[in-house]
Amino acid sequence: MAQAIKPVPQADGSAATLRKISIQQLRVGMYVHKLCCSWLTTPFWHSAFAIESRQTIAQIQASGTTQLWIDLAKGVDVDVDVGMAAPASAAVPDAIDDCPAAIFRFAPVTPAPMADEMRRAALLLDRSRQAVLSMFQDARMGRAIDMQAAMPLVDEIAGSVMRNASALIGLARLKTADNYTYMHSVAVCALMIALARQLGLDDAVTREVGLAGLLHDVGKMTVPPAILNKPGRLTAEEFDSVKLHAVAGHALLQGAGGIGAIALDVCLHHHEKFDGSGYPHGLKGEEISLYARMGAVCDVYDAVSSNRPYKAGWGPAESLRHMAEWNRGGHFDEKIFAAFVKCLGIYPVGTLVRLKSGRLGVVAEQKQQGSLLQPKVTVFFSTRSLTYIVPQLLDLAQPGVGDAIICCEQERTWGLSDIDRFWQAPPGASRDG
């Protein structure tokens, strides 16, 4: 039942006539005055807007909103039949319609040790590369994206992230030049899911956000390979060509059909910046949807922390440091970036660190509970003797270890290479400090 009408004084002396309704009563033709939810869970950057399609209703449902205020002076009431049913072409996307927030739930999982999840994540990444390659080729040819293949892949990635996020996210960072575009999409999918869970988004929205990460760079299929894989700096004309991939990808997904509003939005706007200096539309602040703001952070992190044809990737912690510097210039939403750092950890897996003992180590595991400053670290090098030592896995949170991280280091400073082997296959745990 709709609740009583509430007159609300406006700045111009008039009074808005508002009614509070349930999400089930929302219909095309209404005018939303305010959603009864946190800004972090809404896909809309305007606080008030008209309901012009069933797709908009689906977005609100997917956000987890259960109640909202409508303005009767600007739209229809709950008992008014205005014959505005959306045509079949505007039907709610299957991915949202079939899994509303109140119904869809990920399958329950049990947290897994890093070593166990690493084995599963490696197999999942092998399967994912071919699946994403096939989906991108379908989009390039104008064929419909196979959602029966895409959504189960998102669900598998989500399951791995929920069991132990560090395993899949850490492995997905290790790419080769020939599979960068496809594995970047898998990595951003995993990062988007991890960030969505950190922000407290419900399972239905998290699933859609994961799909958005998987498909966000499909427009790269329209960029000439010679430009995409160029080992040197791009010319201004070449960079302009690359920048077209956001609009091109959005058009590919729209043309293929069956893709939800969240994925379409992230594909189009993941290169927008909070200060308005991004592309393709120069959106600023909350003009950029929550999901596109999430996509911007996840996309940049994976890009700068991965080896690409024209640049060696930074280490995980170094990548976060550079992003924090850029954020002082207004690149990202501060709240989203802070949540992202929290879900990855201050020292993400793969980070090279120097300990109080003078040893170098690589972060091998972020514990799912406890201090972000005390991960598990595999020590393998002495800065005093400048030699490799027998690797040891230290849990810095354990009593009696007697060591601690002083700072992050860079491989080139110490002439190191291939340090990833120390976290991919860490030695047996030791409490000897």
- Rounded radius of gyration (Å): 24 Å
Task: Tell me the distance between the termini.
Answer: 65 Å
CATH superfamily of the largest domain: Hypothetical protein af1432
| Rounded mean pLDDT score | 84
Widest sheet, order of strands: 10-6-7-8-9-11
Counted up, domains total 3
Strand residue content: 5-15%
CATH architecture of the largest domain: Orthogonal Bundle
Q: CATH topology of the largest domain, anyone?
A: Hypothetical protein af1432
* Sheet having the most strands: 6 strands, mixed
Write down the overall geometry.
globular
User: H/E series, N to C?
Assistant: EEEEHEHHHHHHHHHHHHEEEEEHHE
Count of separate DSSP helical elements: 15
Q: What would you call the structural class?
A: alpha+beta
**What ranges have pLDDT less than 50 throughout 5 or more consecutive residues?**
9-14, 80-102, 429-433
Query: What's the CATH first level of the largest domain?
Result: Mainly Alpha
Q: Roughly what percent helix? A: 40-55%
Number of strands: 11
How would you summarize the topology of this molecule?
Layout: E1 5-9, E2 15-22, E3 31-35, E4 49-50, H1 54-62, E5 67-71, H2 94-97, H3 114-140, H4 147-172, H5 180-198, H6 203-215, H7 225-228, H8 236-243, H9 245-256, H10 261-269, H11 290-304, H12 316-327, H13 334-344, E6 352-355, E7 359-365, E8 376-382, E9 387-395, E10 405-408, H14 411-414, H15 421-424, E11 429-430
Parallel strand pairs: 9-11
Antiparallel strand pairs: 1-2, 2-5, 3-4, 3-5, 6-7, 6-10, 7-8, 8-9
Pfam families: DUF3391 (PF11871), HD_5 (PF13487)
GO molecular function: phosphoric diester hydrolase activity
InterPro entries: DUF3391 (IPR021812), HD/PDEase_dom (IPR003607), HD_GYP_dom (IPR037522), HDIG_dom (IPR006675)
